[in-house]
Write a structure and sequence with these properties.
Its cofactor is Fe(3+). This protein is an alpha+beta fold and 335 residues long. It is built from 8 helices and 13 strands. It is 29% helix and 19% strand.
Length: 335
C-alpha cells in the first residue's frame, strides 16, 4: 500500500473506534503502509508484545511514566565512552540472545558472548609480544592463542581487538583523566601460522557501573552487579563472520552468576604457568601466568546458511508457516 501524502489521500486506512481490545489492530492497520517488509514485521511483533504486556500487567500510568523516565535517564547517561543502553541490554539478557541468534555457531567453532559497554575504537595496533597494560600492580599474564577455520586451517592477519580492566577492576574509560591514551586494550594481528600473543595482567572480577540508572535498577531487583574475571576478544577477517567473545577464568568469583549473562562453559579457561622454555621463547618471566586458547572462526557462507536454517526452524516452532527468509531474516510471505 502506498504511503500517505496528505489528509485527503485515499490510501490512508480508516481507524475503528479505539478501545483496549482493538488498539493493537488499529496500530497494525496504520503501520501496514510500510514498504519495508522486514521493518513492518518487526513493528507488528513489537507492538503486539508491548500491548499484550500492558494488558497482561494492567500497566498503570504511573508505572508507564516511570519506565519512560528510566529510559530517558539511560539515554542521558550515554557518552562517547559509556554505553548505558548496551549495559541495560546486557543485564536483561537481550545482548546475549541477539548475538546468539544473529551469529549462530557450529559445534566446532568458538561461541560468542556480550560485547559489553566498554569497547572503544581508539586502541593502538601493537606488535606481537607487546604489553597491553600499563598497570604495575597487576599479576603478569602471557596470552598465547591461535585462530583457525572450522576445518583446522590457520588464519593469518586476523584483526584481534582485545580489552580488559586494570587490577582494580576498572576499564581505562572509567577514569576521568584517561584523555586520549588507551590502556588495557590493543589490536594485535595473527601471524602466518594463525598465532597471536601479547602480555597483559590477570583479569579480576569487577562490578558493572552502579552510579547510573542501570545500576539503580540492579539494586531494586535485589541482584548483585559483579562480573567474573574475563578478557574480551573481537575478531575480524574478510570472508568470516565477526566474532565477539571473551574468556572467563575458571574458579573466578561470580562465574555462575554473571550480572550480564556472558559466561558460557566453552569460554571458561584455566590459567597455566609459563615454563622456562616458554619464558625464553616469549621473553617473559618463568612461573608467571599463562592463558592459552584456540579460537575458531566461521565463514560468512557457513553463518548465512546456519542463520537461514535456524530461522526456518524457529518460525515453524512458532506455527508461522507463511514466512520467507531473506538474508537469514524472516518476513511474512504475502506472494
Amino acid at each position: 500500500m502506498a504511503s500517505s501524502t496528505g489528509p485527503g489521500d485515499a490510501s490512508i486506512p480508516t481507524l475503528k473506534d479505539l478501545t483496549i481490545e482493538n488498539i493493537t489492530d488499529n496500530v497494525h492497520l496504520i503501520n501496514s503502509q510500510c514498504a519495508d517488509p522486514r521493518l513492518k514485521y518487526i513493528m507488528e511483533r513489537l507492538v503486539t508484545h508491548l500491548h499484550d504486556f500492558a494488558r497482561e500487567t494492567r500497566l498503570s500510568f504511573e508505572e508507564w511514566m516511570a519506565g519512560i523516565q528510566f529510559l530517558t535517564a539511560v539515554g542521558q547517561t550515554c557518552t562517547d565512552v559509556r554505553q548505558e543502553f548496551i549495559l541495560l541490554s546486557d543485564i536483561v539478557g537481550l545482548s546475549l540472545l541477539v548475538d546468539s541468534i544473529d551469529h549462530p555457531k557450529p559445534p566446532s567453532s568458538t561461541e560468542g558472548t556480550v560485547l559489553g559497554p566498554f569497547h572503544t575504537h581508539d586502541a593502538a595496533t601493537l606488535t606481537p609480544g607487546s604489553s597491553i597494560s600499563g598497570d604495575p600492580n597487576g599479576d603478569p599474564l602471557l596470552v598465547l592463542c591461535s585462530v583457525k577455520t572450522t576445518s583446522g586451517q590457520p588464519l593469518a592477519d586476523v584483526k584481534v581487538d582485545v580489552w580488559e580492566t586494570d587490577s582494580h577492576g576498572k576499564y581505562d574509560v572509567q577514569y576521568a583523566d584517561r584523555g586520549d591514551k588507551a590502556d588495557g586494550r590493543a589490536i594485535i594481528r595473527s601471524d602466518a601460522h594463525g598465532v597471536f600473543w601479547f602480555n597483559a595482567i590477570v583479569p579480576v572480577p569487577y562490578p558493572i557501573p552502579s552510579d547510573g540508572p542501570v545500576g539503580q535498577l540492579i539494586a531494586k531487583l535485589g541482584r548483585h552487579c559483579w562480573r567474573p574475571s574475563h578478557m574480551h576478544f573481537m575478531f575480524e577477517k574478510e570472508g568470516f563472520d565477526n566474532l565477539v567473545t571473551a574468556l572467563y577464568i575458571r574458579g573466578s568469583d561470580y562465574e555462575t552468576s554473571d550480572a550480564v549473562f556472558g559466561v558460557k562453559d566453552s569460554l571458561i579457561v584455566a590459567l597455566d604457568t609459563v615454563t622456562p622454555q616458554l619464558a625464553a621463547q616469549y621473553n617473559v618471566e618463568a612461573g608467571s601466568k599463562l592463558l592459552r586458547y584456540d579460537f575458531v572462526l566461521v565463514t560468512d557462507e557457513e553463518t548465512q546458511q546456519l542463520r537461514h536454517d535456524e530461522a526456518v526452524k524457529a518460525m515453524r516452532a512458532l506455527g508461522r508457516e507463511h514466512m520467507k527468509i531473506i538474508k537469514g531474516l524472516p518476513v511474512p510471505d504475502v506472494d
